[in-house]
Model the fold of this input.
Amino acid sequence: MNEITLPNRQFGPKAALQLAEERAPAGFDRIDDVIPHTEPEAITASFAAAAGLGVEAVNGRPSFVSPI
Done:
């Protein structure tokens, strides 16, 4: 669990919220003015890799759902 929890604090969804708070503490009208779209994409990719949610990892493991 620690392997997911600790990276989540650094790379998870809260990282994007933290960036917005740091860059625009008084608020903003458009998120793109505060965080370019490439940054959340990088955060998401880092989190997915840390959590083992990459395409290859997910497609390479057995299904959690039993075939009917």
